[in-house]
Amino acid sequence: MKTVGLIGLGALGIMFGWELQQKLGDDFCVIIDKERLERYRREGIFSNKEECKFRYVTPEEATTPLDLVLFSTKIGGLRAAIETAAPFIGPNTAILSILNGVSSEEILSEAFGSEKVLYAVAQEMDAVREGNGVVFKNMGCILYGEPDGQLSRRATDIEALLKKGGVNGRLSCEARRILWNKLMINVGVNQVCASYNATYGQIINDPKLRELFVGAMREAKEVANKEGVDLTEEDVNTWLRLVEKLDVHSFPSMLQDIKAKRPTEIEIFGKTIVRLGKKHSVPTPINASLVEAIEKLESEF
């Protein structure tokens, strides 16, 4: 496994992509459509104030399939990204999605075949989008695994390739848990920060916000348990400890979207928990209130 492509230059895409570009050189590319290519070349893309000299490749320029493709778009842009990335994906291409929520892997599996898709979550970073760039102190890692939990040759090859590219890839045997654990932290951190215009430091140090943050995660944990995923109180506490280590002045993607007056991903966060809570008769009042608050903010754009 040698070649890597990435599609989606949001905060995480820029952060991981520029590291991969610098370390892998011509074995890495950013997959892009012509319209975005022209805009990025005109306006520039920046990582910690450094201009990123990406190797951009359009679908028309695709020659041979890539070994690994990373999807880092927003959920709303995923289907367009699938169409753009299709020429780069062959029978043996592995796919990782670092999108939020629990639905992108299913959508990618439908498009390319479930045998190509591993489950993944990006965590422990404090990247913040600023204009055409991203600033961060902690790059964090990509935690991933095979859907069946096996330690396959492909999975270990991905770990080695990411390491070569300067990205911390952590292989896990608990793939489905990865997805639900990712959703649990997002309904806590993203929704509370977005609803209250709060930083990581504020949701940790303000007793009211901390209670909401933890409470939203606990509701997600109860729903996950009903879905057959064994999230525990220790998982909640692990996330709590991780957030305590993040830059106190930074904030997550949903608040970045609110500040930029962009549509949020509330559909795949709180609305998913509320919907599944009703399915299993699990009360989700905190998530319901956060969904209402965020939808009100969006209505004022």
Automatic annotation (TrEMBL):
Keywords: NADP, Oxidoreductase
Coiled-coil annotated spans: none
GO BP terms in the entry: pantothenate biosynthetic process
Domain Ketopantoate reductase N-terminal intervals: 5-146
EC numbers for this chain: 1.1.1.169
Xref: Pfam families: ApbA, ApbA_C
Broadest EC class assigned to this enzyme: oxidoreductase
Molecular-function GO terms, alphabetical: 2-dehydropantoate 2-reductase activity
Domain Ketopantoate reductase C-terminal: residue ranges: 176-297
An example Gene Ontology CC term for this record: cytoplasm
Superkingdom of this protein's organism: Eukaryota
Family, similarity comment: Belongs to the ketopantoate reductase family.
Record's protein name: 2-dehydropantoate 2-reductase
Species annotation: Angomonas deanei
